[in-house]
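FAQ

Q: What does a record look like?
A: Structure on top, sequence underneath. For example:
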């Protein structure tokens, strides 16, 4: 037996045997053999120099010393359990999970995220990306960025970023010979994302072109990377292309933009915005303001 006291496993075996008044039932509860419990109790009694149980065949009962010791052990184990629960809660409070579409995470959030991490180094941030709507409780998500009209039941929403679409291309696409007029687009490889057809933009531009048969991407980030790689002209969403525009990897074609049918919203469970999630929400709104001041966003 250690000079620092009996091992925790021995104390758990003793507490179970004392509470159940049975070595066999204690063994079943803590998933060890009857012999293991019996051995641990005997070692504990030798270390304490006194009997803790009266043994009458297969039945056991606590001695007076055993009863006093059981009360102290039970209290100590309860304190340990509460301490462990406190630590687990503290660790859970440190973790913050935000859910977004993969394209928004890659093109808008990640380039800015270092500033949040520098400001709040104690917060462990998880980025959850998905093409489907997140289940806040099941997925343990604190805050989400969703694209739509903001009418999700049982959730609180705050409009974050409005959006629009316009054609973009690499400045080196087609050896730099880019279309001069919207009507010229029919001569080039045109690419788009799911559910974002070219036809509405053609109408806004006043040109009569058929919906192109070019590549269609389920992930807007891949669409824009294809445009950067000179694979074609993309119909891009402003919030996702702004970084590439400022870096000179893409250029905007024409001043005509088509307003998006929805907007990006910050979303969280009703009446369940944690303190850390509030910090992230406020930082995101600051980043929106920063983008406005640079003339790059919103």
């Amino acid at each position: 037996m250690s000079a620092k006291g009996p091992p925790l496993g021995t104390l758990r075996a003793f507490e179970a045997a004392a509470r159940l008044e049975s070595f066999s039932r204690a063994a079943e509860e803590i998933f060890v053999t009857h012999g293991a419990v019996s051995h641990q109790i005997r070692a504990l009694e030798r270390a304490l120099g006194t009997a803790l149980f009266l043994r009458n065949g297969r039945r056991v009962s606590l001695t007076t010393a055993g009863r006093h010791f059981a009360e102290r052990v039970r209290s100590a184990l309860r304190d340990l359990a509460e301490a462990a629960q406190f630590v687990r809660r503290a660790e859970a409070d440190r973790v913050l999970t935000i859910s977004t579409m993969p394209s928004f995470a890659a093109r808008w959030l990640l380039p800015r995220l270092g500033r949040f991490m520098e400001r709040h180094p104690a917060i462990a941030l998880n980025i959850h990306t998905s093409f489907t709507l997140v289940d806040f409780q099941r997925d343990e998500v604190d805050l989400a960025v969703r694209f739509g009209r903001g009418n999700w039941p049982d959730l609180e929403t705050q409009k974050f970023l409005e959006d629009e679409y316009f054609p973009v291309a690499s400045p080196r696409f087609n050896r730099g010979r880019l279309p001069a007029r919207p009507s010229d687009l029919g001569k080039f490889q045109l690419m788009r994302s799911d559910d974002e057809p070219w036809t509405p933009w053609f109408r806004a531009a006043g040109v009569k072109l058929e919906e192109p048969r070019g590549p269609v991407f389920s992930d807007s980030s891949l669409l824009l990377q294809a445009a950067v790689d000179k694979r074609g002209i993309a119909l891009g969403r402003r919030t996702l292309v702004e970084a590439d525009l400022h870096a000179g990897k893409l250029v905007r074609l024409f001043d005509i933009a088509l307003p998006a049918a929805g907007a990006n919203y910050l979303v969280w469970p009703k009446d369940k915005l944690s303190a850390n999630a509030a910090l992230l929400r406020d930082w995101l709104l600051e980043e929106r303001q920063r983008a406005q001041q640079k003339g790059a966003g919103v």
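Q: Is there anything notable about this one?
A: The chain has three domains: 8-89, 94-160+265-293, 162-261.
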